[in-house]
């Protein structure tokens, strides 16, 4: 008889199809499963639309676990979510950057808290429904690769998860496409196999980020954002706006500039509350700087060529990556659109995630100082 | 893995005679108690027998017992019914309650406060709470008010018992006294929590009957405003066709109260053994400085979170709870434990409640200790 918990797997159940099918697949493989749903956020007032972060999702998770015959617990992680995801998200928007809350959530809350919880519950391994693949290389190091379904691949969000945690993870959906996942769900009797995918940010289900940031700041007693001016690249005023937090780099819609040429947000200058707009050509940037990077294997020590992805929905592009202090600078071989501070810059070698971090500067990078780079 | 159930303050296993009584009632007493025919009379007879059994357990008269669908309903009916019905009628009320209350009392009192009543929450488990009550009673402006004293006889969380006669003696003689005895019945003799002049609520689910059974004693002369409308059942104090079979179970559970009560000295020994073992493994006992019922220990483990501990112990085959009943899994610090240990807020976040019953064995306690050992050896998360 093996000691209790030796093969116990904590499976994170969001109430969605992916985690449900992940659990069903692991159960079929004979694992001893414990379902855990993290309660991350209570939608309130005007945010109480849509179906994310809703009690219905927790009910779905509970129902799936009942159907699978595995224990299920709801664990309250609202404080961790608020402190490590939502509050930094609001701060970032108010300071004119475009944060990637799913990176922070996966890194700190989802996998970070789940790992601690797994320790407490005596679970050696942790499973989720992420579309990403894990393997072990010839030196025994953990390898994180893109999910087989390129449309669903979530490796971008996982680049910062500690290797020690990745080594305990199981991603049963990494080699499946979404339609295959649903088919497996149907085959295995998962009750919610046809459930709609969630789209928007889970804590801003109506997609109105500006409104959310305003309400959240008001709740916290922070001053309202000051209005400012939209300018073109020559400094000419084109109109006014109601706060830099309502803009993201590359944004085209909702600029309120009336007719005329198509314009995009190029730069956001929080100190002067200015938003600089320009044409598509001006949206192109040459590179990004990441000041604090996390690497899954050994940190690189010299310049190399890799693919760098600067947004979740962007394709990775070939770039020269130069280690620099604790981070790196990536110079793209072809200029890239809408590079935005606050998003994650993730370095790939083929399918494999090497590491990444939050973009601290983006654009032309004329003045980047790489002298800190150590051989 | 054989499981160990130490959550008797949440729900008790059915007492053997309860099961039989319910089955018999389903066969013989399924009619509507208000019907004039034989089936109705049979149901009525079974229900009235249940009422007599409850009355005997409380040493009160059967006509003064209202059967309810559970302890929360009984306590709600007691507090809100005693206050009177219509909006605005609460403005002349002073409602005294303790800081340890179950939500059934606490939220009823809050509802009265929202209707204009003066709500006073006091640490009545301490001398200073009783002193504060004395000062309040001495205030001339409050003399003409209607007073309600709503108190839990024994805490569902820590088992802390209030000295009800002493507290009631401080209150004005005209005060209506409403006692939530849900966790006291079967653990303390009725003389500690029932008086013919008090309203007293009990729950069947804590004494070996099913959830959804309960009773409220309403002294004659107390005008009780009904909460549920639609019929003259229960002498107009609770409308709706009563569920006879479950209350037949409640009757059997009440008949068995003497043996339940007699088991408490043995339960106390088991509880103390468990508690000593948990203290040795880093636990601190909440409410240890208060008088407690024998059936429960509430222990905090610094660094742990209560819901995580409960989940981890469940996976090791041990059923305990985080204290307050909470279906959503949200982690709200326990109010009672915060009130008992205001200087140590961590206690209310890291507490687990193990509650024992007459069915608990020596072996259960040894297995429970072993489960705690396995879990506490891990890193808290």
**Bulk shape of chain A:** globular
CATH topology of the largest domain in chain A: Rossmann fold
Radius of gyration of chain A: 22 Å
CATH class group of the largest domain in chain A: Alpha Beta
Main beta sheet strand tally, sense and closure of chain A: 6 strands, antiparallel, barrel
- Report the end-to-end length of chain B measured between terminal Cα atoms: 25 Å
Number of domains of chain B: 2
How is this structure best described in words?
The complex is a heterodimer of chains A (375) and B (381). Chain A has 375 residues and is of the alpha/beta class. Chain A has three domains: 8-187, Rossmann fold; 225-278, Adenine nucleotide alpha hydrolases-like domains (SH3 type barrels, Roll); 284-363, Elongation Factor Tu (Ef-tu), domain 3 (Beta Barrel). The longest helix of chain A is centred in the N-terminal third of the chain and has 20 residues, at 101-120. Chain A is 25% helix and 29% strand. Chain A has eight helices and 17 strands. Chain A has helices at residues 17-28, 55-68, 78-94, 101-120, 155-158, 163-166, 178-187, 209-219; strands at residues 8-12, 32-39, 72-76, 125-127, 132-136, 142-146, 169-170, 228-231, 237-241, 264-269, 274-278, 284-295, 304-309, 317-324, 327-337, 344-349, 352-363. Chain B is of the alpha/beta class. Chain B folds into two domains: 4-13 and 260-376, Aspartate Aminotransferase, domain 1; 16-257, Type I PLP-dependent aspartate aminotransferase-like (Major domain) (Aspartate Aminotransferase, domain 2), CATH 3.40.640.10. Helices cover 39% and strands 14% of the residues of chain B. Chain B has 13 helices and twelve strands. Chain B has helices at 16-28, 38-58, 71-83, 103-114, 127-138, 164-170, 244-255, 257-262, 264-280, 306-315, 335-340, 346-349, 362-376; strands at 4-5, 65-68, 93-98, 118-122, 146-152, 176-180, 199-203, 214-217, 284-285, 296-300, 318-319, 351-355. Chain B has a seven-stranded mixed beta sheet with strand order 2-8-7-6-5-3-4, with helices on both faces. The chains are: A alpha/beta (375), B alpha/beta (381). At the A-B interface, β2, β3 and α4 of A face α10 of B.
């Amino acid at each position: 008889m093996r000691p209790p918990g030796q093969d116990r797997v904590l499976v994170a159940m969001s109430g969605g199809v992916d985690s449900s099918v992940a659990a069903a697949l692991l159960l079929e493989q004979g694992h001893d499963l414990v379902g855990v749903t993290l309660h991350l956020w209570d939608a309130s007032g005007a945010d109480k639309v849509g179906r994310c972060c809703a009690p219905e999702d927790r009910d779905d998770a509970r129902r799936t676990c009942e159907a699978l015959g595995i224990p299920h617990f709801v664990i309250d992680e609202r404080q961790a979510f608020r402190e490590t995801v939502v509050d930094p998200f609001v701060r970032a928007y108010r300071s004119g950057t475009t944060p990637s809350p799913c990176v922070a959530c996966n890194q700190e809350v989802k996998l970070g808290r789940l790992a601690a919880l797994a320790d407490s519950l005596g679970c050696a391994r942790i499973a989720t429904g992420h579309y990403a693949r894990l393997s072990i290389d010839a030196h025994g190091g953990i390898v994180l690769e893109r999910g087989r379904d390129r449309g669903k691949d979530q490796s971008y969000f996982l680049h910062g998860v500690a290797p020690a945690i990745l080594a305990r993870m199981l991603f049963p959906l990494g080699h499946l496409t979404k339609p295959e996942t649903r088919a497996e769900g149907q085959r295995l009797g998962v009750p919610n196999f046809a459930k709609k995918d969630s789209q928007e940010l889970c804590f801003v289900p109506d997609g109105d980020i500006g409104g959310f940031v305003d309400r959240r700041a008001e709740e916290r007693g922070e001053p309202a954002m000051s209005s400012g001016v939209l300018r073109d690249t020559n400094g000419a005023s084109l109109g006014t706006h109601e706060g830099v937090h309502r803009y993201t780099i590359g944004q085209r819609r909702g600029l309120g500039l009336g007719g005329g040429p198509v314009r995009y947000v190029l730069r956001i200058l929080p100190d002067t509350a200015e938003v600089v707009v320009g044409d598509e050509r001006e949206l192109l940037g040459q590179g990004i700087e990441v000041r604090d990077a996390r690497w899954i294997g050994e940190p690189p020590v010299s310049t190399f060529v890799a693919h760098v992805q600067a947004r979740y929905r962007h394709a990775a592009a070939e770039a020269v990556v130069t280690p620099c202090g604790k981070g790196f600078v990536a110079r793209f071989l072809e200029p890239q659109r809408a590079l935005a501070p606050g998003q994650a810059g993730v370095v790939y070698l083929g399918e494999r995630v090497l590491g990444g971090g939050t973009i601290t500067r983006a654009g032309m990078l004329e003045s980047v100082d790489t002298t800190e780079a150590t051989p | 893995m054989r499981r160990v159930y130490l959550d008797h303050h949440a729900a008790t296993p059915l007492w053997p005679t309860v099961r039989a009584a319910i089955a018999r009632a389903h066969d013989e007493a399924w009619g509507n108690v208000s019907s004039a025919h034989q089936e109705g009379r049979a149901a009525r007879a079974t229900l009235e027998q249940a009422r007599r059994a409850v009355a005997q357990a409380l040493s009160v008269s059967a006509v003064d017992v209202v059967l309810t669908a559970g302890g929360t309903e009984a306590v709600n009916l007691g507090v809100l019914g005693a206050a009177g019905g219509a909006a605005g009628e609460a403005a002349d009320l002073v409602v005294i309650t303790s800081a340890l209350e179950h939500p059934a009392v606490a939220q009823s009192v809050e509802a009265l406060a929202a209707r204009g009543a003066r709500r006073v929450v006091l640490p009545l488990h301490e001398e200073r709470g009783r002193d504060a009550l004395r000062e309040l009673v001495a205030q001339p402006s409050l003399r003409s008010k209607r007073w309600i004293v709503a108190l839990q006889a024994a805490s569902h969380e820590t088992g802390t018992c209030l000295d009800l006669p002493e507290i009631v003696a401080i209150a004005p003689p005209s005060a209506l006294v409403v006692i939530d005895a849900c966790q006291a019945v079967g653990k303390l003799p009725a003389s500690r929590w029932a008086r013919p002049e008090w309203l007293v609520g009990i729950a069947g689910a804590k004494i070996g009957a099913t959830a959804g059974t309960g009773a409220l004693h309403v002294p004659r002369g107390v005008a009780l405003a009904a909460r549920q409308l639609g019929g003259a059942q229960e002498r107009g104090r609770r409308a709706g066709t009563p569920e006879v079979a479950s209350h037949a179970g409640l009757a059997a559970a009440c008949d068995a109260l003497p043996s339940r009560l007699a088991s408490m000295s043995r339960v106390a020994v088991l509880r103390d053994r468990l508690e000593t073992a948990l203290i040795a493994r880093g636990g601190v006992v909440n409410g240890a400085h208060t008088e407690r019922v024998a059936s429960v220990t509430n222990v905090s483990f610094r660094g742990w979170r209560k819901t995580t501990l409960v989940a981890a112990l469940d996976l090791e085959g041990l059923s305990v709870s985080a204290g307050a009943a909470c279906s959503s899994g949200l982690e709200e610090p326990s109010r009672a434990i915060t009130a008992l240990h205001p200087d140590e807020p961590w206690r209310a976040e890291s507490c687990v409640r193990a509650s024992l019953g007459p069915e608990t064995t020596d072996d259960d306690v040894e297995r429970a200790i072993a489960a705690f050992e396995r879990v506490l050896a891990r890193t808290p998360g």
